[in-house]
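Handout, section 3.2

Students often ask what a structure token actually looks like in practice. Rather than define it abstractly, here is a full record for Lysine--tRNA ligase. The first block is the sequence as you would receive it.
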Amino acid sequence: MTDDLRAAALVSKAWPYEEARKVLARLKGGVPAKGNVLFETGYGPSGLPHIGTFNEVLRTTMVRRAFAEMSDVPTRLLAFSDDMDGLRKVPDNVPNQAMLTEHLGEPLSRIPDPFGKFESFAHHNNAMLRAFLDRFGFEYEFASSTDYYTSGRFDDQLKNVLANYQAIMDIMLPTLREERRRTYSPVLPISPVSGKVLQVPIEVVDAAAGLIRFEEDGTTHEHCILSGGAKLQWKVDWAMRWVALDVDYEMYGKDLTDSGVQSGRIAKVLGGRKPEGLIYEMFLDEKGEKISKSKGNGLALEDWLTYGPGESVAFYAYREPKSAKQLHIGVIPRAVDEYFQFRANYADQPLDKKLGNPVHHIHGGKVPDAAMPVTFGLLLNLVGVMGADADRAQVWAYLGNYVPGASAEAYPEVDTLIGHALAYNRDFVAPTLKRRKPDARETAALRDLDARLAALPEGAEAEAIQNEVYAVGKEGGFENLRDWFAALYETLLGSSQGPRMGSFIALYGIANTRRLIAEALA
């Protein structure tokens, strides 16, 4: 860590540094009694990990790294799984749904794994979470709610909850509907009869001993909530965990804003304090509606990784976390090219600009310096005119016209992008391409362009070709050159948008482009 980097980090306006400075101010120049700064992310294992899980861990990691650049206090990241929750609803995307239905209401960690691979449903989904996080190289510690409850690690704070039972009720009851108030309890006992997580009113018998009383099916039970005998309602659970673990930082979505306020008040009642954190905006679908797993209108992380590299989704997640953004297939190409553009700029930027560059946070300051000789957009246009049956070898053959020494060995990242471009074109571009016939003015201009291209050597530079394209538009009666370029895209490529034509023609080849023009004029 250089003094210059630390000084720049302490004043950078990039959002990870602004968040990290909240944690730094929280410490007031000292070190927490636990000896480290604890960052936390939460995961509900009733479903499989998704892009929201990725975004939250990624963004938290970015803040953690930013903090490390401005302080020597050690840090930890805890990925906490709420796997003692009762199963409320059977997910649509898992097998053996009838079996799961029989176990509704039971803790996830006590329900058989519908996939038949692990000792419980929670163990299966927790394993998926760890594999998911490991795939992206996140540094974290995994924590299981079941383990923490049953081991007695939360027992002191469970007693604390009982000792402050009425104060917690006074916080929660005004936030609930009248019907819910009648049955609400911060404590959810695990039934000694059915093994289910019960939503029943309770009476505190002995807070210091962890004893409560409740009724189930007409039978009154006196029950110890310690060491796995109960869990807490999630807002109380959230607050209790903050206090028990002394969490310093946890971000969450805008939809949990009110919950965060209530949990913060409960944490204060318990003698602790709410962690610092960012409240981030939610992703929207293509229509601007909130993404919902039940609606199926979201974009799965696996979908993004089919059509773009992992760095591009990290780039998209980094940008403006406090602003709502659409998340759908159509945003991927631009995110890919913007990632590589910001990466290309990084090496020559002064330090303060580097710290504001998204790629600094994506790569933890270790930004690759390999240049990309071709954009993703240009690759998409190339495979678009090649057709849905285009393959990787054919694309590399075209790249030989444009990139000296073009090969998968020399440019492995380009080879990866070609795979993404072929998949994106096959699934989303090729089915929509439709070339229109040029009108009279456009026909004359295309003939002029064909003649100018015929006069150029086959290996002409992209800039020389671009100059000829411009000249045709200016001399062809197009008052707005955008109309000329739109005509080229629509008549030659079959799309309403397209690349810098000089670059595209240099890549596709002059002879091939003249064939496109001939087809348009036929």
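Discussion prompt for tutorial groups: The chain has a mean pLDDT of 94. How would you have guessed this from the sequence alone?
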